[in-house]
Amino acid sequence: MSMHTPRVDKKVTLNTIARMKGVEPITMVTAYDALFAQLFDGEVEMILVGDSLNMSFFGKEDTLSATMDQMIYHTQAVCNGAKKACVVFDMPFGTYITPKVALENATRVYRETCAQAVKIEGGREKADIVRTLSENGIAVVAHIGLMPQHVRSEGGYRVRGKDEEDIKRLLEDALELEAAGAVMILIEGVKAKAAKAVTDAVKVPTVGIGAGNVTDGQVLVWSDMFGFFEAFTPKFVKQYCNGAKEVREGLEQYVNEVKSRAFPDEEHSY
Ligand SMILES: Nc1nc(=O)c2c([nH]1)NC[C@@H]1CN(c3ccc(C(=O)N[C@@H](CCC(=O)O)C(=O)O)cc3)CN21
Ligand SMILES: CC(C)C(=O)C(=O)O
């Protein structure tokens, strides 16, 4: 067992999260499996099962081909490891194209996983979907700013909130999503000024990724922050461990020891 005293010692609910705004920064990381969820549980308040798993778990170029079945399977794995963290389920591309479709898919999330909220990408144009889910008892995290599910239609990942007009747009989006019932706003890839305007304007907590040190919380993708994901590194990623380097060194040692018959030794044999 860990010698470390957990920071988070009881079940984190959406009420816990709501009360943290303006009091204490909210910590969130992604996880895709039980092993890492268990490592993170007790340290962070929230775990996002992000559709980024389509890239950093499944090996695709973008998030667009992730399916409900894949996301549910990974969320079940995370739920098996995370007993305290508030788990958020990322609705994949194409699974919330109408309020009806969104409700059918999000209902599955509550029925089949421990997730306490679902996340959808979009601004005011998604307000009716947020409202339908909220009215049916499903909590929604609204994801605004840089929206990875728009990578193909927009021809890349582009930082938002660079001028007053776009800041106003993001602010109006956030207010409409909050009015529709969103319990949290996730703000990705925006200038800090835009994230601050949104955070100051809404009563619900905001969690940022590449949105500056102005939001009510922060989120990072686990494989980025621990140095396992090497396909690309967005500017907002701070690397807290060199995971890939550690694994490569360990693997090299194992291979050398097998080749030289240094492993297994007496200690590791029956
Ligand atoms: N491993 C991983 N980490 C992530 O943060 C992440 C995923 N996967 N998959 C889904 C999306 C995609 N994300 C991305 C991907 C690329 C950039 C990027 O290239 N950003 C540029 C800025 C572009 C600009 O200036 O307009 C950068 O240099 O940071 C940002 C976010 C965030 N999400
Ligand atoms: C980048 C984060 C916020 C996300 O949406 C994901 O992990 O899919």
TrEMBL record:
- Gene3D superfamilies found in the cross-reference section: Phosphoenolpyruvate-binding domains
| NCBIfam families, alphabetized | panB, PRK00311.1
Which positions are catalytic residues?
188
Binding sites annotated in the UniProt record for Mg(2+): 51, 90, 121
Gene behind this protein: panB
The protein's assembly and partners: Homodecamer; pentamer of dimers.
Pathways involved = Cofactor biosynthesis; (R)-pantothenate biosynthesis; (R)-pantoate from 3-methyl-2-oxobutanoate: step 1/2
A Pfam family of the record is: Pantoate_transf
Q: Which cofactor does it need?
A: Mg(2+)
Q: What is this protein called?
A: 3-methyl-2-oxobutanoate hydroxymethyltransferase
Q: Which family does it belong to?
A: Belongs to the PanB family.
Citing just one GO molecular function, the answer is: magnesium ion binding
Q: Which organism is it from?
A: Sulfurovum indicum
The EC number(s) given in the record are: 2.1.2.11
